[in-house]
Amino acid sequence: MNASRAVAALTVALALSSCQCGQTVRRTFPKIEVIDAMGADRGSLDFGQVQLNATATASTRVRNGGNADLSITKATFSSPKFGLGETLPVTVGASEEVMFAFTFRPTEPDVRETATVTLETNDPARPTVQLTLLGTGIAAVATVMPRTLDFGEVYLRESKSLEVTLTNAGSNELEVTGATLGATAATLGLTGVPQGLVGPLAAGASRKVAFTFAPTATGDLMTALDVTFGGGLDPLRVTVRGKAIEAVPRLCFRFEDSPMETCSDRTTTMLNLPFGALCDGRLFPPDGGRACVGSDGGTAPASRSGRLYVRNEGNTPVQYAFNVNLLAGGRCDGGAVADFEFASNPSDGGRFVLPTAQLPASTMDPRPWETPPVRVTYRPTSRCRDDGADQAQVFWLRQNEPAGTNRQPQTVTMILSGQSLLPRGITSDITVNLSGTVPNVVQSYNGLANAGDAPLTVVSASLWQGAALADGGMGGAPDEECVTGTGGSCRFFRWVMAPVLPATLPGTSTPSMPSSRPLGQLGFGAFDGGTAPQTGTMYRIFAVFETDDPYGAPCPYPTVGSCVVSSVRAIAN
Predict the structure, then answer these.
(1) Which residues contact 295 (CB under 8 A, 6 or more apart)?
(2) Fewest CB atoms within 10 Å of the CB: 133, 336, 469, 541?
(3) What is the value of pTM for the model shown?
């Protein structure tokens, strides 16, 4: 055997001597499989239609069919419009799988894009795997008009409607998936059916939905309409805004002698303002230095004033006009002279003219929104006996409102009323019965009373006998004044105690119950020691009183200008 053969034989012998019979050797390696949802091999991935400039995502299963970890280290795309939504490297355990996400962002409409992605792996049998990617860019373009739905100012309890128009300005169908209003819309008075925008919208087509703002409370409306789309299209937002407005005018009055004010409100649109009973200016001039006492015994003023003004408690201006009506009422001059005076400043001279005004001039004016006050003064001055009550009506009238609206209040009426305090002297006849055994009679005289509401002052008092009623044939003058302490005419009559003058009878608040008190003492009989009154003869005299009643009747006796006359009858038995 030569040397080479010997070496070969030795090698074989050594190999045979180290062999363990019955054992096998197992190799491990990864195995990449790209499969679809059913588990079949996948060679392509189709994104379908994707909105331009929107990024769509599509996924596929990647499984490791080997018995060692699979490592995917790199992905190479033939077009930049496609990409990978994963971060590499990715390791997949033996017999495990993952979902691989790919992206597509088209930039051209209606173009079918085709590209490949190459995945590099550690699979010794498939170190690279190629997958075809497909997709089409579409141009569905959503536009909405207006982008701001601005209702502006809407008056409370009125309404305004506006439309939103959604248009597909693209070349493909637009899928509108949702439309919602902000959560506060209903509470602010905004209504509509935003779902009317939802659904497929063909290329070039439009869809409209109306919204109505009908506020029930003042304040600002601020919300949004949000519209969402399919195909990765960005949502659209429409800003919705408006303002609920209302003017809340109140006609107010405050007396200068009181801190309280009287105002109209939403339900009370007629105000009655009594100025009370004041001393009549004809009888009690302001500068006469004479106090007027009312029926309650207190001093009454000759005038009373207050402030008339308008307040707006809303959030928008209101235009209005004033109309002052000085009613004649019981005025014997027909109301030609006003006992109510209106003056917004001293130069007005009692006039008050306000054809049109606005409150406030600007909503930026500081609160409260009030007009400068108009001073109203009541100074009663009667013109005749029955001129005891005065009235003025102030009408607040809404101006320049839109046609068809009925904004309240349309008018507010304020009635100003006052009364003159005047005296009124009345008399009653007095009968004196004479007894034959009593030669002289003394009796308190109370035949004068005051039925007015102001005090009555008695200036003078005298006794007179009428010509037709002679005192036993002793009197000779047609009308005789009975003078105390003289004989002859009226010799049976005299003031035993003359009235203390001036005398005052207080006023009364009830004309049917006039006030009175005794005025002196009247005597009847043979006071001079002479002949007594004849039995069976009726004697009559007159008590004549001059008073400050400005409307007393003309006196039939020459000594006074106006008077009240009381008859005194005496009968001797």
Answers:
(1) 277, 453, 506, 507, 508, 509
(2) 336
(3) 0.68
